[in-house]
Amino acid sequence: MDNFLSDYVEYNSGDECPRNYHLCTGLTLIASAVARRVWIKRGYFTHFVAPYILLVGEQGDGKSSAKDRGKDLLFDALPDVPIAPSVTTREAICKYLGSTESIRTFKDPDDVLIEYHPYTLFINEFKNFISVNPSGMINFLTDVSDRKHFINETKGKGTDIIPNPFVVLLACETPEWIINYLRQDTITGGFMRRLIIDYEIDSTGIKPEPNPPANSAVLYAKLKSHLQKLPLQVGEFQWTPEARKFWFDWYVKNKTEAKDINDIAMRGYRKTKHELLVKVSACISLSEYTPKLVLEKHHLISGLALLDLLEINRPKLSIASGRNELAAPQQAILDLLERNDGMMPEREVLRNSGKDLKPSDQYSVLAFLRTTGQIYYCRLQNDSVGRMMILNEKTYAKKKVAGHIKDKQ
Questions:
Q1: Can you tell me the distance from the alpha carbon of 181 to that of 172, in angstroms, rounded to the nearest whole number?
Q2: Which of 318, 335, 360 is the last residue of a domain?
Q3: Helix (H, G, I), strand (E, B) or coil at 129
Q4: How many distinct structural domains can be found in the chain?
């Protein structure tokens, strides 16, 4: 499909960054360009296309590269869009949002002049961004989301009432830090369920020469032009009847399934996943080169497909953050297997996990994973050496169906 998001991913296809990092960055650019000029009504609620997105991966996986390339394009196309420093404080953000410098205006469909206060946060390391006052910054991001007014209490200077704030967040962080702060309850459920997390476990191929595609100049011109057109979009999104029906059926199904999820973090996320779906689907609609403020069924299907894809790795962060001190090593072993096509020789698993675990803890972790059916010890038919292999649940099921299991212990 010829649209901004597909062209943006193609433009960045010559580097080593995971594709989804670029896709999520593209959503951020669309939201920053259109700002609070468009909205989606849903009964009592009004949603704006201001996503909070966190790119999660190991060091060197391309998070910052993906973010920075998007930031450069946005600044080139729309230098008037306010972009925050990568390291700042809650007080500095509130001070800026409450200043005349942050004021932007547009006329709504009824020709009423609307004042709003946008700010886009491109953050190199989320840990540094919230380091001065972690709970204060998290509470701010939670409270300012989709608010008609944001009230900021200042020490000795009274109260600032900021009308129509519009804060977009694209930040980078490692899984270890996320897990640690989830365990400390610093990153609260209210913020986490508003957050789109793109946790990439396995980076893409090796590219010694990360060259843009041959048509990069044409693509860049299209991308820049589209971002410059988006501020002309003003008003409320309309739903097609087909989109309404799809939304209703999915909403009921999602809410029903959410009740049965044991992981409390994932349960909270699924209960409000519909809000993220609205925002992402609206961005996908605005990605079309002839944008219309219309939500169609295929926008919702595409938005849901992206969220479902990103949801696969999300539970690994909350599971590993459990109070059990061995929860993180358990998840580390499962991630290790996944990065190696779902199976490894037992000796290699022991060697890797033994770097961070005492022998007794290593035994306990592997025994728990084995007892709970998350790993299997097997010998394979086509292995002439007869090595004992450890397989994750998914790979074991495939090998068993294919008849590749020689014996299981």
A1: 14
A2: 318
A3: helix
A4: 2
